[in-house]
Amino acid sequence: ADVIGIRDDMYIGKGNAYMRNVAASVQAGHEEGVLEQRPTLVNLQCDIDHPTQSMSDMLHIINHFGGVENLAGKKIAMSWAYSPSYGKPLSVPQGVIGLMTRFGMEVALAHPEGYEVMPEVETIASRQAAETGGSFTTSNSMAEAFAGADIVYPKSWAPFAAMEKRTDLYGNNDMDGIKALEQELLGQNKKHIDWTCTEELMSTTHNGSALYMHCLPADITGVSCEQGEVEASVFDRYRVLQYKQASYKPYIIAAMIFLSKMKNSADILQRLMDRATPRTF
To answer: What's the whole-number average pLDDT of the chain?
Structure first.
């Protein structure tokens, strides 16, 4: 194989560790002559991070604002939003705060009390924000996060503590415990049904026109569910931009593979550009 793609995002403490074990195993297999080449391992989403998503998000942001040099000082609200389902991974919000804080942005993480992400990721985000001249803040107010934001990313996720508990229950094959936890979390979500991206909230963002983002599929109020993460009118207004955001992911994955396989990759890309070969679509 040239590439191994792994998605293992549902079990806290398991997914990323498994990927690292696979990476070490194929490296050893190559060094010992069992494998002719060392396959590239692509993290398609784990319990800690979703790098192909967050890098696609960043490319979308860079293009939207006209260049990476224009990102410093831009405020992004990474906010929890209500969903009628439970158990959504933590890796998207963690990937966003872990990447955006590397670019001098003002990153605001908002969620109801009890919906915290991994503390280790928050520590990394805080350190990176300090190193790049940006900021990283947390609050229990969606309105506070949206106020003056240039980018908003309302997305549901399960509480870190609940995901840890679920991992243990599955490990013990406790299906009754899983069912009880599901009902508990659905009830907990319903207490925060007002955490949704509305036209009113969008009007409080920078110039009332923040870039709305979502990793998709979104829970759209009145469309895919009775009450969800975002009002239908908001989602529809950003529908084309959503398609653009989603379209970057294959290129991100291709770039990861290219960089791992090619030495002097920048020189290779420059030579391809210099050839100016007509492209066929």
So the answer is: 96
